[in-house]
Amino acid sequence: QKRKTKHYKLPPGPKPFPLVGNLLQLGPTSQPHITFTSLSKTYGPIFSLQLGQVTTIVISSQEYAKQLFQNHDLALAGRHEPDAARVEAYHEWSIAWLPPGPRWRSLRRICTTELFTTQRLDSYVSVRKQKVQELLNFISKAAKEGTTVEIGLAAFTTTLNLLSCTICSTDSDSFDSGLSQDFKKIVEDVMATAGSPNVSDFFPVLTSLDLQGARRKLKHYNKFIRHAFDELIDSRIKNKKEGSIACNDLLDVLLDSQFGASSVQEHRQALISILGDLFLAGTETSSNTVEWAMAELLQNPVTMAKLHYELASVIGPECEIEESNIGRLPYLQAVVKETLRLHPPVPFLLPRRAQETVEFSGYLIPEGAKLLVNVWAIGRDETTWPDPLIFRPERFLERDIDFKGRDFELIPFGAGRRICPGMPLAYRMVHVMLGSLLHRFEWKLPEEAAKNGLDMSEKFGVTLAMARHLKAIAIPIPGLHIK
Ligand code: HEM
User: Fold this and answer.
1) pTM of the full predicted structure?
2) Which CATH number fits domain 2-476: 1.10.630.10, 3.40.50.720, 1.10.10.60, 1.10.1760.20?
3) Residue nearest to atom 9 of ligand 1 (CA)
4) Would you give the distance in Å from CA 64 to the centre of its chain?
5) Residues with a CB atom less than 6 Å from ligand 1
6) Which segments within 44-97 are labelled E, that is strand?
7) What is this model's ipTM?
């Protein structure tokens, strides 16, 4: 390999200093997606950085993303898991952080065949419908009482319930218990901690010092998460022993599979990591999408009116939006795509590791290098998107572009073998939640936000959240009555 690639060089980038590499030039950045986008304007759509001991290659254009997924997907499909993901060996059974070996394949296969097939997802449609109805009832109550709705939290609670009834046939929370608020805080903090630049990741020799306290924080959160899943698993095992009717859901399948675990403890560790992956990866991403979409709609009344019109004419006042209706709502789909373009919930695809040295479009990607795909930059690239900063869903009515991993200018779920396996469920949840909020209610901003403008700043982590959570006032649409 070395002989074959000796004529190639790393992609261009700022000259590194000894030992620290380019770390000092980057400065303390709390928004790496923005910093890296401006670097791409200087060094081009593929550039390299030496971040401490780690050679890092950053891709910021659809052309290079296409190269990656079409020509080098396997060689570059390893993961550069952050040190934070290694706490209590979480990464050893995590679909998100495992390298693409037999263990990753078997865990991913179980999830895709037992959870995300159309047939499996269809079998839980009516339970999910019930959960969306609870969301509408909650908002209806807030509208009657004249209180503002924290959109992200309402969407998060619903997502949590939609996921838990699909994965383990249980309700996680009701709207007034406060549990989902605690869980949301934990997921937000885990995402921010795992995604933030960490000295331990740049200098693996310093890992044991945990200079930024990331391990300590994650240990604390793990305790809460582990406790919640332990309770869930123990109660299912007890029910099974007592002869209760099998739920035949993913949790039953996971309990019955060994997937190579060599002891009871290891099996439990595997269950915690898999459930952790699904709940952590599935909640914030989906609820943030609804929150960003609502924030954009509230600032674009004409777009909101068009969406109201589509929902009123296609669904009508008597019916609720169902998952099977999504295909008949092209404007709703365009609004979701436009939201995912401007506000990709995962701004960088999860960091990849070169499993071997690769010649990549005339450049060298050395074995072990870290590869980042800046989805945020690709969605705002002015050579692809006219007026990229304007929220204009119509662009997706004019061009046939989808986010399923074939159109590399829109890859909020990634592409290739590591594409998000939860996409089919996220697709249903996000469209139905957003569509229902708009079908049943008019929305306005509280006075202060209406006067001063909405704060659209971002909080960076593995996921990209609104730094100030969106609050809005719901007004029931006349003539529509929530049951
Ligand atoms: C709008 C919602 C969502 C978005 C935008 C999203 C996006 C992503 C992205 C960008 C990745 C990384 C892909 C890569 O590195 O190439 C990913 C991975 C993953 N997502 Fe999602 N996701 C969403 C919802 C969900 C849901 C609902 C679930 C499950 C319940 C889920 C489970 C996962 C898992 C397990 C992985 C790791 C896959 C692997 O590394 O093999 N996601 N997601």
Assistant:
1) 0.95
2) 1.10.630.10
3) 413
4) 22
5) 95-96, 108, 163, 277-278, 281-282, 285-286, 289, 345-346, 349-350, 412-414, 418-422, 425-426, 430
6) 46-51, 54-59, 78-79
7) 0.99
